[in-house]
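**Discrete fold encoding**
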Amino acid sequence: MTSLILLTTWLLTRLCFIRYDQRLPTRLLLILVLIPIILAPALALGVTSMIWSILAAAALIFSEKVIPERLLVPGRLMGLALVVVTAWLMPLPELSSWSVLTIDWLGLTTERLTTGLWWLLGFLLVAGEANLLIRLLFHSFDLEPMSKTPEPAETEQTTTANQNVEPEIDQREYNAGRIIGILERWLMYIVLVGSQQTGAASGSQYSIIAVILAAKGFARFRQLEERAFAEYVLIGTLASTLLTVAVSLLISSRLAA
């Protein structure tokens, strides 16, 4: 229970990475560093909880202040792996008495709280962490959408100038794709995990996912005539679907345990 609460809260703080593709502002970084350092001992005071909180804070500082900015996304993913593995391998102490009293005061049973935390954990994974993985994929293979430059009248000077200008990433399209991808993954996650919980007919959830993907393709039908954009959308959609299915299977297995 302690590990689940700490991981979920920590992943909530990482949602800010959706907004910031560059290094975090110093004030925001300080707040995010202090959250695990204060929260972990408050929930469950012990040596292992202190070690976990220090690692969580150190991982954030390492990715935001130490490594080169070109390695920012891999550094953030390395921090995720470090903190998750540490929470999994290192047993954290039981919740403190005041934490248990707070849960009782809220009228939550251990079963209901655990179920809600697993659901929330999945939402956070398919939103923030899947977004980082997909952006790393796009950057590694130069698949980011590029902005279109107007085509002036052809002269020798303009031809030479165009050859020296590097294309820039279309930030508007990139940000729109980010939001669309998050909403798409959330819908698929709800359908996949919800169908497992309600015992829906096998295969019905995948039919709903097919409708979601078809609606996305219909909305961007004209843009898909461009090969580069079509590849960007197709790869992003397939990566989103694969990651969402993987997270949904993980969460469903934990809820069924």
